[in-house]
Amino acid sequence: MTNHPTVSPAASRALEALAAAPAAALRETLLEICSSPRWAEAVAAARPWPDRASLLAANAAAMASLGTADLADAMAGHARIGTPKAGDAVSEREQAGIRGADAALLDELHEANAAYEAKFGHVFLICATGRTAATMLAALRERHPHDAATEAEIVRGELRKINDIRINRLLDEA
């Protein structure tokens, strides 16, 4: 999902426009993808990106370089799983898998989120695109026993996946 073998002319133009954007406008756009200022700075510093793969590689490199505080900044831009931000089309689209879930399942998800947050001090973060409420709950329960260091690396990977999806959408919807 992170790489598109054929690149449309519109996506190429979007990539060129993004690479040529003034620093402030680029920063604003990148912060909509990921709320970590350090991530946005690292991705911007990698421009120009000759192709989609280069921009996605910049995302991966930037994610790999984030420290604990930077990961916290990145997570701050995400809604709690099972509770998309009202009126936020991105949050609602990414968590579409909870639509139609029964109340008991949503209650279990809420309780598991609370236990996770109490243990790790932050929201449970997962690339929710394409996942149902039940699969997100299963993943949450599977990850809860992890130690903080293991979980931080999983979160880093999930954030990278989310950013890849958002970057691809930005280029494809241009």
TrEMBL record:
Check the record and name the InterPro entries matching this protein.
OHCU_decarboxylase (IPR018020), OHCU_decarboxylase-2 (IPR017595), OHCU_decarboxylase_sf (IPR036778)
EC number(s) recorded for this UniProt protein: 4.1.1.97
Every Oxo-4-hydroxy-4-carboxy-5-ureidoimidazoline decarboxylase domain range: 20-168
Catalytic reaction equation(s): 5-hydroxy-2-oxo-4-ureido-2,5-dihydro-1H-imidazole-5-carboxylate + H(+) = (S)-allantoin + CO2
The answer to whether UniProt assigns keyword Lyase to this entry is: yes
Report any Pfam family annotated for this entry. Answer: OHCU_decarbox
Q: Which domain of life, per UniProt? A: Bacteria
An MF annotation (GO) of this entry? 2-oxo-4-hydroxy-4-carboxy-5-ureidoimidazoline decarboxylase activity
Q: Which UniProt keywords apply?
A: Decarboxylase, Lyase, Purine metabolism
Identify the PANTHER family for this entry.
Answer: 2-OXO-4-HYDROXY-4-CARBOXY-5-UREIDOIMIDAZOLINE DECARBOXYLASE-RELATED
Name of the protein in question: 2-oxo-4-hydroxy-4-carboxy-5-ureidoimidazoline decarboxylase
Instruction: Provide the organism lineage as a comma list.
Output: Bacteria, Bacillati, Actinomycetota, Actinomycetes, Kitasatosporales
